[in-house]
Request: fold
Amino acid sequence: MTTAPRTPSAGSFPEDFVWGVATAAFQIEGATTEDGRGASIWDTLCAKPGAILDGSDGSVACDHYHRWESDLDLIASLGMTAYRFSIAWPRVMPTGRRAINDAGLDFYDRLVDGMLERGITPYATLYHWDLPQALEDLGGWRNRDTAYRFADYAAITQFRLGDRVQHWATLNEPWCSAFLGHASGEHAPGHTEPAEAVVASHHLLLGHGLAAQALHGGRRPARVGLVVNLYDVTAASDSAADADAARRLDGQQNRWFLDPVLKGTYPADIVEDFAAYTDLSCVQDGDLETISTRLDWLGVNYYSSFHVAGLDAPAVPVVGARPTPWVGTEDVATVDRGLKKTGMGWDIVPEGLTRTLVRLKKDYDAPPLFITENGSAWEDEVVDGEVHDRDRIEYLDQHLGAVSDAIAEGVDVRGYFAWSLMDNFEWAWGYARRFGIVRVDYDTQQRTVKDSGRRYAAIAKANGLG
Ligand code: FCB
Reply:
């Protein structure tokens, strides 16, 4: 089943709407051993046989560390006025604490200057999953101390860049760091201990709160945000079992992060569900006040939605299958609705984005929102040097339509960042999945704007470019 593509007309977005593209350090930079960068947990995971689908790593990636000037030219040539990038903690602090590596900060200093010279506003993410391995060796996000080290790193980075960078995101998708990193083991550090995932989620949120306070307390004005990956979760039927499956998945995926940050409490039903794994003694007095520190904006990464059913018995484990990232949900199944799927196998559900945004307004009275990531992977073909990626264009049009629907319903959405500027290292999938609106030929490092890149540039231009 396909939905007809929608074309957002000029004027569907506010005049000052921000149009941008997004990337992350480990996925594009390469140069993992240059200029004093320390090792990160993703370097370690990549070295583990079988962890990455195509056996690749981030040592070269898009070679952005050396090609950043032409990459910024590319962003400018698409007419973009905002760029969401991430800063690699192990470049700035090779062991995650104490020693600062000036050469690492210099790189981001030049990058930020390069953006400003081209009229591109920087949106910096401080943590897009590349924890210094030395901190992992001390317990990583299972260790409360990491939250304090993260706040130090935030303050140090802001001290250097804060005269030019105003928009800061603390963490990218803490759900992934906690649950893919510690429950399913698909992401670094690759653990499969549900209790660890819950504890890590709390320390990540605490790190967010402490870093937000540090950024607010800096010498320069900072607009502080957090980026979460939200999914619209629906029950396959109104049976009690299906409704409960939806409650649990929505609770772990969405409310577990939104409630503490925006309401100052953990959702009681999920605390109860987690009780079989941990008593949450990691939550200390005052933590929730720290976590709910004022947020100037919330970043929403949206890709898909889940349609779920509750099973009578836990699903029969398939040999070699990974454990579920959602703690204690072995009796929950995702149901195939027969919708069109992306190259990741993810259902395409644009209206789920509208529902997600409307919910943030209604249930959370959320601060201004940015779509900090949205995009799709496809098996692109190069024909006469061009990529006619119609599926990606359709996905883009539908999701921009979904954003403009939410705006029409009164949701305060301030901008959209396409994931991604260019094809890159897609974590456990290596280079085997391409999300770029620009193609990267990994043999030559040549960049080619895909049809979707041209389409996106045209939409942004028609809507006035914020
Ligand atoms: C998100 C990540 C981003 C990218 C997209 C496809 O979960 O934040 O780095 O991998 O998925």
About this structure: Residues 24, 27, 172-173, 176, 229, 301, 373, 419, 426-427, 435 surround beta-D-fucopyranose (CB under 6 Å). The longest helix spans residues 240-263. The CA atoms of residues 236 and 309 lie 5 Å apart. The longest strand covers residues 121-127.
